[in-house]
Amino acid sequence: MAQLQEFMVSCGAAKVPAHLPSERTRIPPGPPPSAAPLPDAAETFRRALANPVGMPPLEKLVRKGAKVTIGIQDGRSTHYHPEDHDLRILGLPILLNLLEQYGVQPEDIQIKVANALHRMWTRKEMTHILGPKLPYTLGGRLSCIDATDASQFIPLGLTKRGMEVMVHRSVVESDLFIFMSTPQGFFQGGWKSILVGMSNWESIRYHHRPWPFASGHSVQDPKNSSFHKLLNEMGTLVDAELARRGHPPVLKIEGVLTTTNPQKFAAIDAGLITPVREMHIDLLLSELVTDVEGQTDVLLMGMPDGDGYSRLSVFNPIHCRNKALSALFNAYHENPLVRKGGIFIVANPFEPKFSLLNHPSYHSLYNEVLPAMKDPVEVWDTYSEEYAHRPEFVHKYRTGFAFHGAHPCILYGQGLYALNHLSAVFAAGVPQENEEVARRMGFEPFPTVDAAVQEAEARLGKTCTITYHPHLEEQGYFTRVHV
Where are the domains of the chain? Predict the structure, then answer.
């Protein structure tokens, strides 16, 4: 009889037991060592602005009377500690002070939250991003962008692949546009900050739709992902427009955090978007990616509630689907951790909870569309434009702190490659009353992890290999899978 080993697996807000056969279960290595923290993050920030990569010093980029816009990424990670370092909290006061020293008037400096299709933030919620004082002291100089207001955006033309490029006016009309971000992985950062965060539906829809012929390169794989290549192509149109207007390129200030608890800065650099991003890739690889030999037949992962789209709000079933099939499944470089035709088991109770304040179009998609239509490409082609322009969703986005109407169509479609790659996706730890929720999201429900594993063995054979990867549960670590 096989010897079983017990593990406690994250499942929503709780932990549930899993009994896995010792001889066929692999636990990948733990995360790599963290990068070393900077001895003085504030001084490193100042030095970066005095010596930006590929650009003159900040002092030479501005003059008296210059109009400057500072873009900042929206939100924070789902789980963080108050003592964690944040580039916006550290850097904004320093940056504002330097600009004023160099002759820029305070009233000529605007701060824009790059929320794009994400919801706007109340002043109180902005303290979650900027600390307790700045949101209330900046007044009208701090605002979220409105992706539904066509007057805020400028079309820059089409790329060779026919993708329309539109960016917020401040990106190309300011005498200097600065963007600050701290990517927590490989999906964020680089040109994404501008071409997603400072863009609108009419441009984002080209690269955020489900692709029926996706290659299988994870968006978290910066050297192979088509997503990042598309954004780099779009970025050339931004550079060209800035040059045509006689403005300097976007000044990007980007940080890398340690993986310690609390998190500190491991690097802060400034300069041209692509070189700064490339400077940080190897550092991120060294502290976030674990090498794994070979794929597995069955991949088991626990999934706590909460993600970036539900922070300060409610984690709903579409978030749950996206976190499992996109964020967790895609936490790989080169090859998926589970083989073609394998089975992915995710532990979560799939609670049917929604915030009608922050996610009204999610609630409508779940109740109006998904009971009858499951194919993500068909959902996108049929409903994304309607949801993007439905008046009540536009109104709630603009005035009611709701996500853009089409946002649930984006998240629902992100799991398409995982579903095409796998023979089945199982949801474990689902109570009987939530079974229909899991099915509507494309998962086969099971009451326990053990029941899900037994069904996987029945389909793939009693000798199937199982991988349980506890280090990916909170999102933030990745595997490089060699086959």
Answer: 4-30+294-482, 41-287
Task: Give residue-wise pLDDT tens across range 321-374.
Answer: 999 999 999 999 999 999 999 999 999 999 999 999 999 999 999 999 999 999
Q: Report pLDDT for 223.
A: 82
- Contacts for 71 with CB less than 8 Å, ≥ 6 apart: 111, 112, 113, 114, 170, 171, 177, 178, 179, 180, 193, 194, 197, 198
- Scan for tokens 């789980």, then name that residue: 79
Kindly report the pTM of this predicted structure: 0.96
Give the CATH architecture of domain 4-30+294-482.
Alpha-Beta Complex (3.90)
Residue range 41-287 in CATH 3.90.1150.10: no
At residue 214 the predicted structure's pLDDT band, cuts being 50, 70 and 90, is confident
CA distance 188 to 211: 20
| Nearest-angstrom CA–CA distance, 329 and 72 | 28
State the DSSP H helix or E strand holding residue 146, giving kind and residue range, or none if neither. Answer: none
3-state secondary structure of 184: coil
Spatial CA neighbour of 418 closest among 482, 330, 331? 330
